[in-house]
Design brief:
1 helix; alpha+beta; single chain; 73 residues; 32% helix
């Protein structure tokens, strides 16, 4: 992948085999795009955060009893 504006095509070969040029790929959990911007990465990470919050929503927002000692777990 070549990063930059305007987008251009390059031909890269390894052992005589031409490698496919891609528009985006995932690297260390982050999405990299050829335009250099990270809108897709932001959307994916926002979605992951919303999903994690919704899984913990009952615990975080649920009613907390303030009576006596209670066992958590």
């Amino acid at each position: 992948m070549k990063i930059g504006r305007p987008p251009s095509t390059i031909k890269t070969t390894v052992d005589g085999e031409i490698l496919q040029q891609v528009e985006e790929f995932k690297y260390l959990g982050s999405i990299r795009s050829s335009s250099g911007y990270s809108e897709n990465d932001f959307r994916v990470r926002t979605g992951m955060a919303k999903s994690a919050f919704n899984k913990l929503k009952k615990i975080l927002i649920g009613r907390i009893k303030t009576g006596g000692k209670e066992k958590i777990g």
